[in-house]
Structure formats: C-alpha cells, structure tokens
Amino acid sequence: MIPTQHNLDSFKYMCQNTGSAENSDKEPINMIRRLGGLAILHSYIMKILVLLLCSAVAVTCGKVRQGRKFPDEFVFGAATASYQIEGAWNEDGKGENIWDYLVHNNPDAIADRSTGDVACDSYHKYKRDVEMMRELGIDSYRFSISWSRILPTGFPNQINEAGIQYYNNLINELLKYNIDPIITLYHWDLPQPLQDLGGWLNPLIVDWFEDYVHVVYENFSDRVKSFITINEPAQVCYEGYGVATKAPLMNVSGIGEYVCARHIALAHAKAYHLYNDVYKPQYGGVCGYTFAVGSTAPLTDSEEDKYAVELMVQQQWAIYSDPVFSKDGGFPKDLLELVAEKSAAQGFPKSRLIDFTEEEKAYIRGTSDFFGVNHYSGSLTSFSLYTPQAVPSSMDDIGVGQMVPDDWLQSASAWFQKMPDSMYITLKLIKNRYGDIPIYITENGWSSYGGIDDDNRVDYYRSALEGVLDALDEGINVKGYYAWSLMDNFEWLAGYTECFGLYQVDYKDPERTRTPRKSAFVYKHIIKTRMVDPDYVPETTVMTIDEGH
C-alpha cells in the first residue's frame, strides 16, 4: 500500500482522545444540530454560532487556530553540547575524550575531515553566546559539561580547576541576565581513558559516572536548578556500540547496545539518586533524562503494522525509557521475549538482552523528574518493509522495517525528513505510554547547508511549535521547548557539512563570527509574543537586545 496523508491522519486520530483537535472540528456543528430548531437558521448566523460555540468550549476550529498562546510559565530555550561548540580541545588541562581520539586517529570517518578542536570556540567566546541568548530573549540555556575538561583522566583523582572555572564563568554570565542554566551531564564525550577500559560496556562505568557527577553537583548545584543525566542513550549505545555510527565506533551489533543499555540505565539512576538524596534537599531543583524519540507511524491501518510500530518504539527508545517511566520497570516485555527467542535460535546460551533484577528495577524506576525528548522526524513502519540485517542485531531481533515517502521535505541530513504532524504524534506517543508526566522538548530543529535565509527552518519551527500547541490544547503536560541549536556546530560524523543553528557561524573567520539567520528573528518573535504567527516577516537583519534581556 502506498503511504498517503490519509494514513498519517488516521494514525493521528488513533493517537488522540475524544478531546482532540480533529474531533473538536466537528463538535460545534454537532452541538448546533442537537439544538434542533437552530439548524434552520441562515448560514450566516450559523457561522456566527459556530464561532461562538468554539469560543465557549475552547476547542480548535481547523488545523491552525489563530491566536493560540503558550502559557506564561512555558519555557523557551536553546541547546548546545560541549564537544560541538567549545573547542579548546587540549587547553588549560583538558583531557582527551572519545571524539578527540576519533577525529585525530580516523579523520576519514568525518565527512569533511574536520575536527572539534576549535569548533565555535565557545570556550573563549561564551560571553558572545550569552549575548545571542539575550538577543533571542530565551528563558533558559541547555548546555553540557565536558567530562574530560573537569576530570582529565576521567577519574576524580585529578580535578581540573580551570575547567571548573570555565563553567562557573558561563553559569554566572547566564544568571547575570536571568537565563536559567540546565546542565546535561553527559552528551557523548566520554574520557578516552575510560573508553580504553571498555567505556559503557564495562559495568564499573556506573560508579565512574557517579564519581564524575558528584564533582559537577558539588560545584554547580548551588546555582543550577535543572540537570539532565544523559543525552539520548540510544545514540550512545546503539550507535556507539552497536552499528558504529558514533564514537567510539564499536561494531558489536546485537550485543554491545544491550550491554550498554543496562549500564547506562543504572548509571542514570545512580546520578539521580545522588542528586535527589544529597543536593536536592539543600538547593531544590530537578533531575531528568533525555531520549531521542521519532514519530513512528504505521504504514497502513492494519493491526500488524500497528504492532510493528510498538516493536520499533521498544527498540528505538522505550528500551531506555521504560526502566525509568513504566509502571513495572525493566526492559519492554515484547523485546525481551523476541531477543531471548532469537538468541536461543542463534546458539547463545543466554539471552543477549538480560533484564534487571527486581532490586535493580526498583532502584531505576521513577528516577526522573521529567521526560526530556529530542525530536526531529519520523518514519512509516511495517513488517513488510523489513530487509535482512546483520545477525545478531537489534533490528534483526524485531524484524521491522521503515520507509520515508518521497514527498517529505529532505533536510541537509540524510536521516532527517520533515514528517507531517511529527511533533504532535511524538508527544502523544509519550503521553499514551507513560501518562501525565512533565515533558520538556530538549532538542528540536532543522538542518540546512548554510545561508541566512533559511525559510525551510522557519517553516519547520512553526510546524513543530503548532504541534506543541495542539498537544497543550489536549492537556499534554509540555513544559518547555529548546531549539537545536543556538548556533551551527560540529555535527558529529557530518563535521561542518550540516547546519542546525539559529545563528550561522563563519568557520573561516578566526573570530568565528556568529550571524543571526531569519529563523532567529522568527523564534525571537514567537518567544516575545508567545504565539506562532505564520505571516510574520522580519523587517530587519539587525538583531538587538530587547529591554529586560
């Protein structure tokens, strides 16, 4: 069956409950019909009544209801990550991390053979970065700590005070201008000495991570009130230790990602308990966990394809989030059964995916104050789309395939196409799975090849934020939105060939000049008005700081 917009609309309808936007389109008419005699009124009067009824029941009339506003307490922010922007890779006592090692020892792995040695030079230009945040008017800035910058050996036997001071300077600059810092404790840049000992495949990583985050909490939790333990565990485990598309480029498919999944859940839980037990009582604050969640939709309306969606969800992100957010804890049951069956058939004496003990489940379950979601796009899913994969591998374990229709707009990233309604579908998937939990969109953005007039990015942001408004209209507990990214940066294996920034960075300029794109002005307008205006066109190319920022 050829996928159509009807299939996506059907899936969106399936995701919704009776109070949804699409159902509410028809509700005013149904109400009028129930009023009996009013049905014979002149069509002009009918239209007025429809508008009045829409206002009375506070429902969405049409796909985009003009005038919807984000709540006053809704947080708007921007996000970055340490290796992608800081540079200063070997300055002031910083140690080597797995990305330093990769780009210097395997340069052909990077699309343009570039490195993050200087990147955006934010280590030296953090004040300009904060100035850009003030220009945008954001409420909060999400950044990550470089483990190797504060612990050069990976262990707390050597604490680099220059690294601590850099983050103190950044935090103080943010607070000076009433921008709330949110720290990501781990965004993929493991110290190389720890990788030499096995990295996330070594069970001792759980304790190593706790030792590291203790140093972070001890130095910054007096001023920082929001922490994220780990960014996108799927990318750490599946891409880093399964299919080798992220550092450390270990291809241990079907085994490595599952071993990593156990260790990373336990490491997260240890970091959460440390904060919750020691630092939260002193300073208050929250500690959460961020996952990459795609909008996985069925290729057809068949029950088989709907089940394929569930298996893809389990393989892609629920394997990491279920242990924390599900009622029973532990890995997803269907995935456990499938991997056990495949492992036995392949001659393994035990399952390649070992569930947690009951004690471990209890220790991990509930260890997050919010669900952080990084969302970009999605795909259509079906058993019929499956093609043979490596054996063993997690994709072979579930036997499900994916596809993207040709009419979805392609970004500069091969993996990233603009899926209709993807933000709404994603938020609804999370709500349906875990109930009424606080959700922060910790990354969302569009990749381009560069240039200032980034209309596709503008359209993407508007569509995504309309999806957030749809979710808010349904009562989904979305608390905030962080644009990815504040500025262009080193985009992992793509190097500098893909641009995600609201601000363009000139890498040919030693000063790494930052220039606002059209999307920066549009995002600023959305933040200022707390509305998505599809007709807004920036009247200037000069970015200024508004009063109060």
UniProtKB/TrEMBL annotation:
Gene Ontology annotations of biological process type: carbohydrate metabolic process
Coiled-coil stretches: none
Classification via SUPFAM superfamilies: (Trans)glycosidases (SSF51445)
Transmembrane region(s): 35-59
Domain of life: Eukaryota
InterPro entries named in the record: GH, GH_1_N_CS, Glyco_hydro_1
Molecular function, one GO term: beta-glucosidase activity
Protein name listed in UniProt: SFRICE_000946
Protein species of origin: Spodoptera frugiperda (Fall armyworm)
